Amino acid sequence: MTNIQGIGASSGIAIAKAYQLVTPDLSFEKATIDNPNEQIERLEKALAISKEELEKIKEHTRKEIGDEHAEIFSAHLLVLSDPEMINPMKDKITSENVLAETALEETANMFIDMFKNMDNEYMRERAADIQDVTKRVMAHLLGVTFPDPALINEEVIVIAKDLTPSDTAQLNREFVKGFATDIGGRTSHSAIMARSLEIPAVVGSKEATGTISQDDMVIVDGNEGTVIVHPTEEELAAYRQKQEQFEQQKEEWAKLKDEPTFTEDGEQVELAANIGTPNDVEGVLNNGGEGVGLYRTEFLYMGKSELPTEDEQYDAYKSVLEQMDGKPVVVRTLDIGGDKELDYLDLPEELNPFLGFRAIRFCLENEQVFRPQLRALLRASAHGNLKIMFPMIATLEEFRQAKAILNDERENLISEGKEVAGDLEVGIMVEIPSTAVIAKQFAKEVDFFSIGTNDLIQYTMAADRMNEQVSYLYQPYHPAILNLVNNVIEAAHSEGKWAGMCGEMAGDSIAIPILLGLGLDEFSMSATSILPARTQLRGLSKKKMKSYKEKLLAMGTAEEVVEFVKERTE
Questions:
Q1: Where are the beta strands (DSSP E) in 128-277?
Q2: How far apart are CA 554 and CA 480, in angstroms?
């Protein structure tokens, strides 16, 4: 039995066999051969198995997240069927007496180099398709397991260095019971996706992939941030009992699903959810969400080979608005860059992408990308309670420029006879300290603020939230953060506007009492955090928490803040 400590990223307990989602060693020894036909047969068999797998993955992706995401696998299937690529491999085996592995590698590399050097962007993208497909075929030639999350058909716990958005999009919720990763924190994409999928997860363990082997029995305790490898029978029994207790707790929370969110002293706040796709709305409604506080639209752009069309975006936004049936939906415009890349946009390499050409900065420089999204949003606004939010705003000039483009597209649509909502709130995401500092000036022009603490904390503390070496500086309760949050809320209220929070801090049990006392109007979090938060708020007095406000803001360390809050709320 081995215990691995990490960060509890998504609550709950999972018990299952390990599934290692890591790229296998694809190296091999080159050799000459005597029987070319045998090697050609091996190649054809590996190609056939790869085709069969990709068809299944394509179908799974289509069912789970839609046709547009499935199209990337159509491109992969085309590569496997292209005689222009397959025939040269066979010719190489016959003429040079080489292994199928050598023919595959050398032919694929030749095409990859050729496509990478083409002027046409679409053709350059094909290099990545060939690279992906080649790895799969090579794995089958070498007889090693190629990880395919979409093909998992038994209960497992996924073990990975990290999980990308495309990895998590392929996870089959029926069989993937939890996951553990080497890197990441509570605000990493893998953690956020785990909460969206409602599966237990431990991230930032540093040693999961090095310690856990394929098919090892594993327990993931997302509540305590612990992974147990090779548990004893006594431990299995104890954790199965904990599982039952957690399920009973969820049943208690579920009783509040259709209740409004009131504090102990009768003050009402709004509990909303953060989502990435229209499919996530079901989880919002099942968990009693009173709105969508953050719709991350970049997932519409990821896992594709080209930009989504205006109509594709309109359909997605309309779907969310109609499902929410009049409840507010705050849509964040495209936030690409940083740790979210799009291969087909050919973004420049940057030394520090988190402080670089991303989000609103990219959109204002690329109106051909920005305007179709704004048009799609404006068209969708006729189908529900839409609010538009611009991310990564650092200056008033950026907000004014973005709003001017939005108003320009509104006029264009009206002149085209398209229906657009009359009163549409337009706000900004506060994630840059400069914006929080001059929130009073912004409050005169925006309709609302939504505080994005995931980035606000890392920018304020000058600590990359994905860097394990400085993770100790990622402090949501630091007085510097609390003072910036307070500044934004006070600025909003001084102008009769509302202030929300869509960072992970909004669903944190220590932060909730503090934010209530600061006067936050809307708390937006992972859907699975809503009912626990509602339960907690029903036991808190806003008046009482407000009375602690000045003392909390004057404290010197995060530790002092945590100790103070725990003493008065537990």
A1: 156-160, 176-181, 201-203, 217-221, 226-229, 270-275
A2: 10
- Cβ atoms of residues 295 and 330 within 8 Å: yes
In this structure, is residue 237 part of a structural domain? Answer: yes
> Which DSSP category does 212 fall into?
P
Domain of residue 46, residue span? 36-142
Decide the pairing of beta strands 176-181 and 156-160: parallel
Q: What is the CATH number of the domain that holds 125?
A: 1.10.274.10
Euclidean distance between CA atoms 289 and 283, whole angstroms: 9
What is the structure's pLDDT at 123? 66
| Residue 425 DSSP class | E
Specify the 3-state DSSP secondary structure of 19: strand
Label residue 75 by pLDDT band (50, 70, 90): confident
Strand partners, 202: 8, 180
* pLDDT tier at 73, thresholds 50, 70, 90: confident
Number of domains in the chain: 3
Q: Please provide the distance, in angstroms rounded to a whole number, between the alpha carbons at the two ends of the chain.
A: 34
Query: Quick one: pLDDT band at residue 120, thresholds 50, 70, 90?
Result: low
User: What is the share, in percent, of the chain residues with pLDDT greater than 70?
Assistant: 94
Helix (H, G, I), strand (E, B) or coil at 2: strand
In the predicted model, is pLDDT for residue 169 greater than 70? no
- Determine the Cα–Cα distance for residues 121 and 123; give it in Å rounded to an integer: 5
pLDDT value at residue 361: 95
Task: Decide: 143 and 122 in contact? Cβ < 8 Å.
Answer: no
Cα angle, residue 310 at apex, residues 283 and 326 outer, rounded to 5°: 40
DSSP state of 158: E
User: Which uninterrupted H or E stretch holds 48?
Assistant: helix 36-65
- The reply to whether 31 falls in a domain is no
Which phi and psi angles does 203 have, rounded to 5°? -120, 170
CB atoms within 10 A of CB 128: 18
Residues 429 and 485 placed together within one structural domain of the fold: yes
Q: Which residue has the tokens 């309709």?
A: 447
Cα Rg of the chain, angstroms: 25
- The number of beta carbons lying within 10 Å of the beta carbon of residue 421 is 18
Long-range contacts for 233-239 (Cβ within 8 Å, ≥24 apart)?
A: 235/1, 236/15, 239/13, 239/15
pLDDT tens digit sequence for 510-545:
999 999 999 999 999 989 899 999 999 999 999 999
What does the chain come to in residues?
570
Tell me the catalytic residues: 189, 502
Last residue of a domain, one of 100, 121, 142: 142
Question: Does 236 share its domain with 363?
Answer: no
The span from the CA of 420 to the CA of 519, in Å, is 33
CA distance 478 to 483: 9
Q: Which amino acid is at 380?
A: A
The verdict on 312 and 349 lying in the same domain is yes
Pull the structure tokens for residue 383.
């189908």
CA distance 228 to 178: 13
Would 539 be classed as within a structural domain? yes
In terms of domains, do 11 and 60 share one? Answer: no
At residue 125 the predicted structure's pLDDT band, cuts being 50, 70 and 90, is low
Residues 174 and 85 occupy one common structural domain: no
